[in-house]
Amino acid sequence: MEYPMYSLQDVIRCDLCETPVPPKHCDICHIHLCEVCVGKHLSDESKDHYIVPFKLREIISKCTKHSTEVCKKFCTKCNIPVCPLCVASSEHKQHKKEDILTLFETKRKLMQTDLQDLEKSIYPKYQEVATNIPVQRADVNKHSQKLTTALDKQGEALHTEIDTIIQGMKSEIDDMDAQHIAALDQQEVAINRTIPEITKTILDLKRLLERLQDKLDTSDVCLVSEYTSRTEEFRSLPAQFQVTLPIFTPKEINREQIHQQIGSLSELAITYPLLDKPRILTDIQTDSRGSIALRSVSCLSDSELWTCGNGHILRLYNLQGELLRSVQTKSGNVPWDIAVTRSGDLASGPPTLRFSQI
């Protein structure tokens, strides 16, 4: 038989029967064992034994607190190997312990399962999403440009409509100006035609009155008798008119109405689908055990939570299971339920609802 991993001189053998390449190892006695010799080795009850697969030899170690002991167990809460003395101590008494080899095999299988799941399922999904993100980002820009174009078009339409209305009102102003100017021109013609007549009448009256101051003759008598007064005629000015000038009364700009005229944008909605199955993030071992059962839990934050049981002590834990704080109810009574306000105050009750500033 050939053993490619070793030369004939270096081949590893069972320390009891010399069988080559033994599959087992006693991690306390530090000897290699074949399958046949495992039972013989365990029959020696004068000392402890810990049989592991050969490839897992030296999986156990000396306890850092008890130098004469080896660690066969693993404290899952403290995440450290523990020896029998540690297991019996008060420090780890209430903690969950597992056999190191069993835990190792369980973790190894979990790692293999995780690796397969990561490589064949999870990683491809992440790659697919990562590949699709630039496409989605480009789609965002395209859609935004489409919205912007539509807004610009609507804005241009509104501006065109406003410009048309403004231009129409300006045309009305021009028409009213033309009517006003025409009336003024007509009045000016009438005034300018009458002024020379008044001027001539004034001169004639002055000459006539000057002659009447001298010695009268027959011709003067005739002139006086022929005189006809035009004062009343001139007293009434040519046709007068009253003008009520147009005024512009701007309306208060109503932003809401303008917004309604432009249109509206629907809101952006980003939703995240719920998990098909809930995922356990962590297990927390609270002090509410036995007769003091856990009754209520209220989250202080994403990483801290308050608990209460049948006792009068309220306890604050983090997601690592560490006890951060303990508070006794002021009444000394057992709380039926607890709640945490937005500001972090703790409320407990009934029969009396009490708020505690924590």
**Strand runs, count:** 13
Number of helices: 6
Q: What distance separates the N and C termini?
A: 74 Å
Structural class by secondary-structure content: alpha+beta
Form type? rod-shaped
Q: Which CATH architecture of the domain at 296-356 would you pick?
A: Beta Barrel
Highest-level CATH class of the domain at 296-356: Mainly Beta
Share of β-strand residues: 5-15%
User: Compute the gyration radius: what is it?
Assistant: 55 Å
Task: Describe the sheet with the most strands.
Answer: 4 strands, antiparallel
Low-confidence stretches: 1-8
pLDDT averaged residue by residue: 80
Spatial order of strands in the largest sheet: 7-8-9-10
What is the H/E string? EEHEEEHEHHHHEEEEEEE
CATH fold category name of the domain at 296-356: Thrombin, subunit H
The amount of helix comes to 40-55%
What's the layout of helices and strands?
Blueprint: E1 24-26, E2 31-33, H1 35-42, E3 51-53, E4 73-75, E5 80-82, H2 84-88, E6 97-99, H3 100-213, H4 218-226, H5 231-235, H6 255-262, E7 296-299, E8 304-308, E9 313-318, E10 323-328, E11 337-340, E12 346-349, E13 354-356
Antiparallel strand pairs: 1-2, 1-3, 4-5, 4-6, 7-8, 8-9, 9-10, 11-12, 12-13
Explain what the structure shows.
The chain has 358 residues and is α+β, with helices and mostly antiparallel strands. Among the domains are: 1-59, Wheat Germ Agglutinin (Isolectin 2), domain 1; 296-356, Thrombin, subunit H. The chain has six helices and 13 strands. The chain has helices spanning 35-42, 84-88, 100-213, 218-226, 231-235, 255-262; strands at residues 24-26, 31-33, 51-53, 73-75, 80-82, 97-99, 296-299, 304-308, 313-318, 323-328, 337-340, 346-349, 354-356. The strands form four sheets. It has a four-stranded antiparallel sheet, with no helix packed on it. It has a three-stranded antiparallel sheet with strand order 2-1-3. A three-stranded antiparallel sheet has the order 5-4-6. The longest helix is centred in the middle third of the chain and has 114 residues, at 100-213. The radius of gyration is 55 Å and the shape is rod-shaped. The model is unreliable at 1-8 (pLDDT under 50).
